[in-house]
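Sharing a chain and its predicted structure for anyone who wants a worked example. Both blocks are below, sequence first, tokens second.
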Amino acid sequence: MLRTEPKSKYDQGDSAILEFVDGPKDMRFAMTAATMARDRALGRRPNELTLQNKKKVTRFRKDGEQTFEAMVTRLGKLNLAGVKNPKKAKKEVEVAAA
């Protein structure tokens, strides 16, 4: 189960994506993809742990890199990070890093 942000400010009900998986490795795949999608939405570089997890979840999976990127794109469209203005968020991250 992957919790998501409410669809609008008027509907504050809980929402989630439910997906049947084979085991904990598939959950790591989804969580790593969600982390990458969030980092991209915020304009941040992924940290070392996220990059290691990406390598682990794609290493032995057929078409692992392409499948992973497709999942990141799909989750990015859901706006899990709740970013209203990605350009503004990126600028704020750059200012905070300086």
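Comments welcome. The two ends are 36 Å apart (CA to CA).
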